[in-house]
Amino acid sequence: MFQILNEKGEVKIELEPELSPDVLKELYTLMVTTRVADTKALKLQRQGRMGTFAQSLGHEACQVGSAYAVEAKDWTVPYFRDLGTYVTLGFPLKYWYLYWMGNEEGMHIPEQFNLFTIAVPVGSQLPQAVGLGLAATLKKDRIAVLSMFSDGATSEGDFHEAMNFAGVFRTPNVFLCYNNQYALHAQVKTNSSQDDCTESLCLRL
Q: Which of 57, 71, 84, 171 is least buried, going by the fewest C-beta atoms within 10 A?
Protein backbone atom coordinates (compact mmCIF):
# COMPACT_ATOMS: atom_id res chain seq x y z
CA MET A 1 0.00 0.00 0.00
CA PHE A 2 1.30 3.44 -0.93
CA GLN A 3 1.13 5.79 2.05
CA ILE A 4 2.58 9.21 2.75
CA LEU A 5 0.93 9.48 6.18
CA ASN A 6 0.50 6.33 8.24
CA GLU A 7 -2.06 5.53 10.94
CA LYS A 8 0.28 6.89 13.64
CA GLY A 9 0.42 10.31 11.99
CA GLU A 10 4.01 9.81 10.82
CA VAL A 11 4.91 11.42 7.49
CA LYS A 12 7.38 10.05 4.94
CA ILE A 13 8.94 13.38 4.05
CA GLU A 14 10.59 12.06 0.89
CA LEU A 15 7.16 11.18 -0.52
CA GLU A 16 5.47 14.50 0.18
CA PRO A 17 4.25 16.25 -3.01
CA GLU A 18 5.81 19.55 -3.96
CA LEU A 19 2.97 21.84 -2.97
CA SER A 20 3.34 25.41 -1.77
CA PRO A 21 2.14 26.44 1.70
CA ASP A 22 -0.69 28.42 0.07
CA VAL A 23 -1.93 25.38 -1.86
CA LEU A 24 -1.71 23.18 1.24
CA LYS A 25 -3.72 25.74 3.20
CA GLU A 26 -6.33 25.88 0.44
CA LEU A 27 -6.64 22.08 0.32
CA TYR A 28 -6.96 21.91 4.10
CA THR A 29 -9.63 24.64 4.07
CA LEU A 30 -11.61 22.69 1.46
CA MET A 31 -11.42 19.53 3.56
CA VAL A 32 -12.57 21.35 6.70
CA THR A 33 -15.40 23.01 4.75
CA THR A 34 -16.49 19.59 3.51
CA ARG A 35 -16.46 18.14 7.04
CA VAL A 36 -18.44 21.08 8.47
CA ALA A 37 -21.02 20.96 5.64
CA ASP A 38 -21.39 17.21 6.10
CA THR A 39 -21.85 17.56 9.87
CA LYS A 40 -24.49 20.24 9.34
CA ALA A 41 -26.34 17.99 6.90
CA LEU A 42 -26.40 15.16 9.42
CA LYS A 43 -27.87 17.46 12.07
CA LEU A 44 -30.54 18.69 9.64
CA GLN A 45 -31.40 15.10 8.77
CA ARG A 46 -31.69 14.08 12.43
CA GLN A 47 -33.95 17.08 13.04
CA GLY A 48 -36.25 15.97 10.23
CA ARG A 49 -35.45 19.05 8.16
CA MET A 50 -33.71 17.08 5.45
CA GLY A 51 -34.29 13.64 3.96
CA THR A 52 -31.91 10.73 3.86
CA PHE A 53 -28.44 11.59 2.63
CA ALA A 54 -25.14 9.78 2.32
CA GLN A 55 -22.34 11.09 4.53
CA SER A 56 -18.93 11.92 3.08
CA LEU A 57 -17.22 11.55 6.43
CA GLY A 58 -13.68 10.24 6.02
CA HIS A 59 -13.58 10.79 2.26
CA GLU A 60 -12.55 14.45 2.38
CA ALA A 61 -8.90 14.07 1.36
CA CYS A 62 -9.65 11.74 -1.56
CA GLN A 63 -12.40 13.98 -2.87
CA VAL A 64 -10.66 17.31 -2.45
CA GLY A 65 -7.35 16.03 -3.81
CA SER A 66 -8.81 14.48 -6.95
CA ALA A 67 -11.20 17.33 -7.72
CA TYR A 68 -8.42 19.87 -7.23
CA ALA A 69 -6.56 18.28 -10.16
CA VAL A 70 -9.52 18.66 -12.52
CA GLU A 71 -9.15 21.36 -15.17
CA ALA A 72 -11.99 23.65 -16.24
CA LYS A 73 -12.44 21.83 -19.56
CA ASP A 74 -12.69 18.40 -17.93
CA TRP A 75 -15.89 16.71 -16.79
CA THR A 76 -16.63 15.20 -13.39
CA VAL A 77 -19.20 12.48 -12.73
CA PRO A 78 -19.56 12.09 -8.94
CA TYR A 79 -21.44 9.57 -6.83
CA PHE A 80 -23.67 10.08 -3.83
CA ARG A 81 -20.93 10.62 -1.21
CA ASP A 82 -18.97 13.20 -3.19
CA LEU A 83 -19.64 16.34 -1.17
CA GLY A 84 -15.93 17.21 -1.14
CA THR A 85 -15.87 17.10 -4.93
CA TYR A 86 -18.73 19.58 -5.18
CA VAL A 87 -17.11 21.86 -2.60
CA THR A 88 -13.73 21.81 -4.37
CA LEU A 89 -15.23 22.56 -7.77
CA GLY A 90 -17.05 25.57 -6.30
CA PHE A 91 -20.56 24.18 -6.66
CA PRO A 92 -22.95 26.27 -4.49
CA LEU A 93 -23.70 24.35 -1.30
CA LYS A 94 -27.27 25.63 -1.27
CA TYR A 95 -28.06 23.42 -4.28
CA TRP A 96 -26.50 20.39 -2.60
CA TYR A 97 -28.66 20.92 0.50
CA LEU A 98 -31.77 21.50 -1.60
CA TYR A 99 -31.21 18.21 -3.40
CA TRP A 100 -31.14 16.17 -0.18
CA MET A 101 -34.19 18.10 1.01
CA GLY A 102 -36.10 16.76 -1.98
CA ASN A 103 -36.16 19.97 -4.00
CA GLU A 104 -35.60 19.35 -7.72
CA GLU A 105 -33.79 22.70 -7.99
CA GLY A 106 -30.99 21.11 -6.00
CA MET A 107 -29.49 19.41 -9.01
CA HIS A 108 -29.73 22.40 -11.30
CA ILE A 109 -26.12 22.55 -12.46
CA PRO A 110 -25.02 26.09 -13.41
CA GLU A 111 -23.65 26.26 -16.95
CA GLN A 112 -20.11 27.08 -15.87
CA PHE A 113 -19.71 23.64 -14.26
CA ASN A 114 -18.80 20.53 -16.27
CA LEU A 115 -20.43 18.44 -13.60
CA PHE A 116 -23.04 15.69 -13.57
CA THR A 117 -25.84 15.45 -11.04
CA ILE A 118 -25.68 13.14 -8.03
CA ALA A 119 -26.19 9.48 -8.93
CA VAL A 120 -27.83 7.57 -6.08
CA PRO A 121 -28.18 4.04 -7.55
CA VAL A 122 -24.83 2.34 -6.92
CA GLY A 123 -22.58 2.37 -9.98
CA SER A 124 -25.17 3.87 -12.33
CA GLN A 125 -23.01 6.93 -13.03
CA LEU A 126 -20.19 4.90 -14.60
CA PRO A 127 -21.80 4.05 -17.98
CA GLN A 128 -22.87 7.70 -18.22
CA ALA A 129 -19.28 8.78 -17.64
CA VAL A 130 -18.06 6.45 -20.38
CA GLY A 131 -20.73 7.78 -22.73
CA LEU A 132 -19.41 11.25 -22.07
CA GLY A 133 -15.89 10.00 -22.69
CA LEU A 134 -16.92 8.41 -26.00
CA ALA A 135 -18.57 11.69 -27.08
CA ALA A 136 -15.33 13.51 -26.32
CA THR A 137 -13.40 10.96 -28.38
CA LEU A 138 -15.71 11.32 -31.37
CA LYS A 139 -15.51 15.11 -31.14
CA LYS A 140 -11.72 14.93 -30.67
CA ASP A 141 -11.99 17.00 -27.50
CA ARG A 142 -8.80 16.68 -25.45
CA ILE A 143 -10.41 16.37 -22.05
CA ALA A 144 -10.57 13.92 -19.17
CA VAL A 145 -13.72 12.53 -17.58
CA LEU A 146 -13.29 11.78 -13.88
CA SER A 147 -15.84 9.49 -12.25
CA MET A 148 -15.90 8.33 -8.65
CA PHE A 149 -17.37 5.25 -6.99
CA SER A 150 -16.77 3.09 -3.95
CA ASP A 151 -15.83 -0.57 -3.63
CA GLY A 152 -19.49 -1.58 -3.46
CA ALA A 153 -19.98 -0.44 -7.06
CA THR A 154 -17.41 -2.98 -8.28
CA SER A 155 -20.02 -5.70 -7.70
CA GLU A 156 -22.48 -3.99 -10.04
CA GLY A 157 -22.90 -4.82 -13.71
CA ASP A 158 -22.68 -1.11 -14.53
CA PHE A 159 -19.09 -1.09 -13.29
CA HIS A 160 -17.99 -4.00 -15.48
CA GLU A 161 -19.82 -2.71 -18.53
CA ALA A 162 -18.25 0.72 -18.11
CA MET A 163 -14.74 -0.70 -17.71
CA ASN A 164 -15.13 -2.92 -20.77
CA PHE A 165 -16.58 -0.17 -22.96
CA ALA A 166 -13.90 2.33 -21.89
CA GLY A 167 -11.18 -0.21 -22.65
CA VAL A 168 -12.55 -1.23 -26.05
CA PHE A 169 -13.11 2.33 -27.28
CA ARG A 170 -10.13 3.83 -25.41
CA THR A 171 -12.16 6.66 -23.95
CA PRO A 172 -10.49 9.42 -21.86
CA ASN A 173 -12.02 8.22 -18.60
CA VAL A 174 -10.39 8.28 -15.19
CA PHE A 175 -12.02 5.92 -12.68
CA LEU A 176 -11.43 6.62 -9.00
CA CYS A 177 -12.45 3.98 -6.46
CA TYR A 178 -12.85 4.96 -2.81
CA ASN A 179 -12.03 1.57 -1.31
CA ASN A 180 -13.61 2.23 2.07
CA GLN A 181 -13.96 -1.50 2.78
CA TYR A 182 -17.70 -1.37 3.32
CA ALA A 183 -20.13 -1.77 0.47
CA LEU A 184 -23.19 -0.05 1.97
CA HIS A 185 -24.55 -3.16 3.71
CA ALA A 186 -21.72 -5.68 3.55
CA GLN A 187 -17.97 -5.83 3.94
CA VAL A 188 -15.79 -6.30 0.87
CA LYS A 189 -14.82 -9.85 1.82
CA THR A 190 -18.46 -10.94 1.53
CA ASN A 191 -18.79 -9.44 -1.96
CA SER A 192 -15.47 -10.53 -3.47
CA SER A 193 -13.39 -13.68 -3.67
CA GLN A 194 -10.36 -11.95 -2.17
CA ASP A 195 -10.14 -9.31 0.54
CA ASP A 196 -7.88 -7.12 -1.59
CA CYS A 197 -9.36 -7.77 -5.02
CA THR A 198 -11.14 -4.43 -5.24
CA GLU A 199 -7.98 -2.50 -4.45
CA SER A 200 -5.82 -4.47 -6.88
CA LEU A 201 -8.44 -4.27 -9.64
CA CYS A 202 -8.70 -0.50 -9.37
CA LEU A 203 -4.93 -0.10 -9.27
CA ARG A 204 -4.58 -2.18 -12.45
CA LEU A 205 -7.13 0.00 -14.23
A: 71
Is beta strand 182-183 parallel, antiparallel or unpaired with respect to 186-187? antiparallel
pTM of the full structure? 0.84
106 contacts: CB under 8 Å, gap ≥ 6? 95, 96, 97, 98, 99, 100
139 vs 203: CA distance, rounded Å: 29
Domains of the chain: residue spans and CATH? 19-204 (3.40.50.970)
Kind plus residue range of the DSSP H or E element containing 138: helix 125-139
> What is the tens place of the pLDDT at every residue in 55-68?
889 899 999 999 99
**In angstroms, what CA-CA distances link 7 with 4, 10, 184?**
10, 7, 24
Q: Is the backbone of residue 67 left (phi > 0), alpha (psi -120 to 50) or beta?
A: alpha
Strands (E), 60-180: 75-77, 145-150, 173-178
User: 137: burial class by Cβ within 10 Å (0-12, 13-18, 19+)?
Assistant: middle
